[in-house]
Amino acid sequence: MMKNIIFFIPFLMIISCKQKKEVASQLVEDPHSFSKPSMAVVEHLNLDIKVNFEDQQISGKAVWTINNKAKSNEIIFDDSKLNISKITLGAEEKETTFNYGEEKEYIGRALKVAITPETKLITIYYTTNKDASALQWLNPHQTAGKMRPYLFTQSESIAARSWIPCQDSPGIRFTYNATVTVPNDLLALMSAENPEVKNTTGVYHFKQIHPIPSYLLALAVGDIAFKAVDERTGVYAEPSVLAKAVYEFADMGKMVHAAEKLYGPYRWGRYDLLVLPPSFPFGGMENPNLTFITPTVIAGDRSLVSIISHELAHSWSGNLVTNATWNDFWLNEGFTNYFERRIDEEIFGKQEAEMQEEFAKKALEDAVKEMGDTSKDIYLKTEYAGRNPDDGTNDIAYEKGYFFLRTIEAAVGRPNFDAFLRGYFDSHAFQSVSTEQFLTYLNENLIKGNADLEKKIRVNDWVYGPGIPSNIAYAKGLWAKGGKFSKIDSLASAWNKGKLTDTSILTKEIGTSNEKKFFINMLPQEMTVKQMTDLDRQFNFTGSNNTDIQLAWYTLAIRNQYMVADKRIEDYLIENGRMWHIIPLYKEMMKIPGGLKRAKEIYKKARPNYHPMTYQAIDKLLD
Length: 623
Description:
Blueprint: H1 17-23, E1 41-52, E2 57-67, E3 74-79, E4 83-89, E5 94-95, E6 98-100, E7 109-114, E8 121-127, E9 135-138, E10 150-153, E11 173-181, E12 187-190, E13 203-213, E14 219-222, E15 225-228, E16 233-237, H2 239-248, H3 252-263, E17 271-275, E18 284-285, E19 290-293, H4 306-313, E20 321-323, H5 330-348, H6 350-371, H7 395-412, H8 414-427, E21 431-433, H9 435-447, H10 451-457, H11 459-463, H12 484-496, H13 504-509, H14 513-522, H15 529-539, H16 547-559, H17 566-575, H18 579-589, H19 595-606, H20 612-622
Parallel strand pairs: 1-11, 16-17, 17-19, 20-21
Antiparallel strand pairs: 1-2, 2-8, 3-7, 4-5, 4-8, 6-7, 9-10, 10-14, 11-13, 12-14, 15-16, 18-19
Helix pairs in contact: 3-4, 3-5, 4-5, 5-6, 5-7, 6-7, 7-8, 8-9, 12-14, 14-16, 16-18, 17-19, 18-20
């Protein structure tokens, strides 16, 4: 039935563009939120909070301006382990009653607040729980500077409800102002207009003038300094990290200009980065105005900066136009992967973009193989009701989404597709969109009833079908005769068969980080210690500071029990909290004799350094 869902929404075809804007979010029910926005919905937040490192608590009040559309006697917020002390209505703060719904796994509970048909303002007084899933409190030892504590939030996907009472759905957007009080030797930053230096009071004020969904609410507090890269981009980091980070991300401004050239103006004012401590669980988080980024991409040679292209691209695909529910996650990530590679092609050249595409195809094939090619979880439009939406953070949303868009581009031509995407971003700016609404827009503005084009693209096969459709489009130049990957593949094959008499040719032909990563991926899964040693002598893979190369090489090292790398692997797992760069290594250890015992020994040391999202996943993995 899901394959044909697009044909069950004909009423979308007959409403005007203006009406679409007004009802876009309301037409979609979010299975991961208790809120009922068609009845009463939030529009603006005034947040006033204090950050207490000693008790590891945030306390204060969330003042919500609401639109009581249905003149309802109740508004529903999402709540996860918050301690609510009281709730008041109106500017006069008349106390009201509230109650909770049944606690449900993954999504918490409904906070039901009694209101009147005339209510426009609600103030919720609260403190956070020490187990708040969005908050990571770091002691000084867990930071780069080792002198002061640190706090950062991670609200995506549905963790905002653990630090702010909110209607926690990507389909609900609001503006916000905030006052945040912190120790006066620390700096506070948010997903908003930010200060560049500490003040003497420890009180900071923030404003986000554009409506955002709750998962883009973000806060960081720490010993943080700032340095500009150009007139509208810059880097925040701990003082000991700042200079390295500024060097690494020197092309930020060029990336913003490249993005604007493709799909229109950057609408958020400044674009800055915050380099977080190593426990940050992701490569990056696209918080508006202030991308949170992992320090693991600071390789010293700018070899991993494409992650900035990705997070920047989210300023259009995700932040500007947002998936309406987490079942539409591919609309955020597939679009962003496509946009990222277009930025990288503009900045670093076509071959760089093609290399990334090659890795993407392999990642997609591996994901389909692991999940099973008939699983509904490998549809683009997914169904995660009753499950944690974080489980959808996989290569289906990212890479199947990317290749769907890439296939459309191939069918209609790049100029036509670029014009279509520019129109899509402009017409849906600061809105949340479902898969079905996007497909309606695609049909009306690009396919336009063209039967031949429909056959070329095969929309339903991509969106509501399993596996990888056979019409997948991707560049093959790297594999053409004389192409770079073809050469490296031949070298890997010759080396494996012992036919490469002069091994120095390897380092002559394989120089960039992507080429090294590809070479490692072409090596046989089973190798001798001597073979591993010979390659390590040539490339020093074990000693690499490039986390992509480390992940690929350490996977081989574990599989083949190359003990020379054991200490580096242990250090890597203890110092690096990036989920999808460490979980695969724990999984690999579990496959070898004695590996589970070793994994648990390392994990015991590493767990205190991990974010709750990370250690919850590894707790489950290691039982």
